[in-house]
Amino acid sequence: MVAVDNIDIHVGGITPFTTIDFPGRLAAVIFCQGCPWRCRYCHNRHLLESGEAGQYSWNDTFRWLETRRGLLDGVVFSGGEPLLQKQLPEAIGQIHQNGFEVALHTSGVYPERLSKVLPLIEWVGLDIKAPFDEYELITGGGNGQRAKDSLIRILDSGKDFELRCTVDPLFFNPDNAGKMARQLMELGVSHLVLQPYRDLVNRRTQAVSKEIIASIEQFLPVVKQRH
Ligand code: SF4
């Protein structure tokens, strides 16, 4: 086991307690620094630069987590993109040793790294940004083939997972929403969680239109809305 001091995870922030980010568990969220994508609606812009060390060292984060034993069930790695952290598998191993379960939130940008981490975690949440052939329009250049590859690896792993999509009203319409849902169905997916778009300036949310929901429901039997 690698010593805690020798693990380099750039932590940009911590939510000490959540009931909504890891289903069925009381958890803390560790927000990792850095993401290669630039989604047009990203609300974590302060976490995007990968060259920055982050707010906390892994040593500080781990010592704090030790004080949460018995109070939390799990730890969620979110971001930014947590799979950018090369020593994530070692960090997960240390967290398990302390009795916590582990969840991962990912955009799917690193399918090969995801394959290494999947056997180590209990749950994964994968963002679906758009139809796979239109990802660039949301991510600022990020390729949807990587997200598709990640989804296939999650499905093959048999892990519990959630797919969620932020419904950007400037991008989505019933046609491309239906196309995205059909692509998911063709891979064997049956559920999708829709997250409302939140304006970057005034932080108001915009509800998902009935037409878009109906279009998605043509292909996916379980469509939930997060408010
Ligand atoms: S993948 Fe996530 S963290 Fe990265 S830019 Fe998009 S919304 Fe932000």
From TrEMBL:
Its cofactor is [4Fe-4S] cluster. One of its GO terms (molecular function) is oxidoreductase activity. The keyword DNA-binding does not apply. PROSITE patterns: RADICAL_SAM. Residues 21-227 form the Radical SAM core domain. Its EC number is 1.97.-.-. It is an enzyme of class 1 (oxidoreductase). InterPro entries: Aldolase_TIM, NrdG2, Organic_radical-activating, rSAM, rSAM_sf. Keywords: 4Fe-4S, Iron, Iron-sulfur, Metal-binding, Oxidoreductase, S-adenosyl-L-methionine. It comes from the Bacteria. Gene3D superfamilies: Aldolase class I. NCBIfam families: NrdG2. This is Anaerobic ribonucleoside-triphosphate reductase activating protein. It comes from Oxalobacter formigenes OXCC13.
